[in-house]
Amino acid sequence: MKVYDHIVIGGGVIGCSIAYRLAEAGLRVAVFDAGRAGQASMAAGGMLGAQNEFERENPLLEIALESRAMFPQLRDELLYSTGIDIELRTAGLIKTAATEQEWSELRQQYQFLTDKDPSIQWLEPEEVPEVEPCMTSQTAGAIFLEKDHQVKAPLLAEAFLKAAMNAGVHVYEETKALRLLIQQNRVLGIDTSIGSFHATQVTMAAGAWSSHLLADTIFSLPVIPVKGECLSIRLAGPAPVKTVFAVDGCYIVPKRNKEMLIGATSIPGSFDTSVTAGGILSLLQRASRLLPVLSDGIIHRTWAGVRPQAADHLPVMGSHPFIDSLHICTGHYRNGILLSPITGILMKKYITGCQETHKLLAPFAPARFSGSCAANIHECLN
Q1: Where do runs of H (alpha helix) occur along the chain?
Q2: Fewest CB atoms within 10 A around its CB: which of 116, 187, 188, 355?
Q3: Residues paired with residue 259 on neighbouring β-strands, in sequence order
Q4: Is the pLDDT of residue 381 over 50?
């Protein structure tokens, strides 16, 4: 039986970021993933929407901004450690409204964000093509977030995984965690499909799948799966360089070689990763209204991913409310890529006993769901 200082369940960008930082601190760490490590993270669009995602005060905002600022250094660090370029692109993001109601919502967001950052620009419809020539002026208005950049999610997932392994982390792919080993309200390790493994501490970072293993701990974690279908189109002619995000949730993220990543549908409660014709049709219709050049593109691939969403739409980061030495880190929803750098660092500090970090992460503590909210997930979501 192998023994580790720390076991991380889940090999996505969040789990591997945590494992990487713990191993850097000198701990013996193992990561377990039921499938291919990073598979769920690879489905993401890669947007670093630290401003795009927030319309009002939120305890996550400052953390998101700090995490976004880490990416230039992280790019260099991971390139040096692994040889993988995460393809950080710094053209910014245009968020656009199509209707009068969306215009009102976007205007309120603009006013909230400009109070904190005057660099954000409001664009009238005729100004939109001046900032992104491939866009149509047939909008109600837009804002330009020049600091909301993007990376290529599969490369980030691969780089975090490789960096963790280079730091000494043992990675067990295709190895399902079957149950937690608990004795006298303390976690001792995990049972897996290939046997038992002991550890001083365990972190549950299995995204939308985290709730299943925690069901036996007298604690209902209200994190549900949200399926998102996506596709990519390759263009031969003129191609946009800026990320385009509609108020209704449709987005287009330009990658290298004129590949346009388009997402995403939103289907709560589904782990099904099949792609439907209706979902792709909806995305194509919405995206082509924003960027007419997409109609001339060739469909390259389609896929679906599963994002973890907590009942109050905030991440869950901290200790299990009843089981000692068991930590939870999930619920990042569509901000897992954005938050992966800072999450690894904060969880490392939290796990190793930094009291300032415990205070910082208090709004995201799993214990907030230990009362009536956890008993009725659907009510909390409404």
Answers
A1: 13-24, 61-69, 71-82, 100-114, 128-131, 153-166, 210-214, 277-290, 336-351, 355-360, 372-375, 377-381
A2: 355
A3: 234
A4: no
CA distance 21 to 250: 34
Name the residue among 137, 99, 125, 109 with its Cα closest to residue 53: 109
Tell me the pairing of strands 326-330 and 186-192: unpaired
Taking the C-alpha atoms of 154, 310, 254 and 271 in order, what is their torsion angle to the nearest 10 degrees?
60
Please, which residues bridge with residue 177 across strands? 192
Cα–Cα dist 127/188, whole Å: 60
332 in Cβ contact with 315 (< 8 Å):
yes
The single residue listed with the structure tokens 């993401």 is 44
Give the C-alpha separation, 45 to 236, whole Å. Answer: 21
Q: Is the Cβ–Cβ distance between 316 and 330 less than 8 Å? A: yes
Cβ-based neighbour number of residue 255 at 10 Å: 19
pLDDT class of 39 with cuts at 50, 70, 90: confident
What is the distance between the alpha carbons of residues 371 and 102, in angstroms, rounded to a whole number?
36
- Amino acid type, 270: S
| Contact between residue 131 and residue 94 where contact means Cβ atoms under 8 Å apart | yes
- Average pLDDT for residues 51-68, to the nearest whole number? 97
Strand 141-145 to strand 121-123: parallel, antiparallel, or no bridges (unpaired)?
A: antiparallel
pLDDT band at residue 1 under the 50/70/90 scheme? low
Do 208 and 271 meet the contact criterion of CB atoms below 8 Å apart?
yes
Q: Which helix (H) or strand (E) holds 315?
A: none
Measure the CA–CA gap between 335 and 341, rounded to whole angstroms.
11
Task: Please state the φ and ψ torsions of residue 140, each to the nearest 5 degrees.
Answer: -90, -15
Q: What percent of the chain has pLDDT over 70?
A: 97
Length of the chain: 382
Burial 18-45 (b: 16+ CB within 10 A, else e): bbbbbbbeebbbbbbbbeebbbbbbbbb
CA–CA gap between residue 277 and residue 203 (Å, rounded): 38
Predicted TM-score (pTM) above 0.90: yes
Query: In degrees to the nearest 10, what's the CA dihedral of 343, 344, 350, 356?
Result: -60
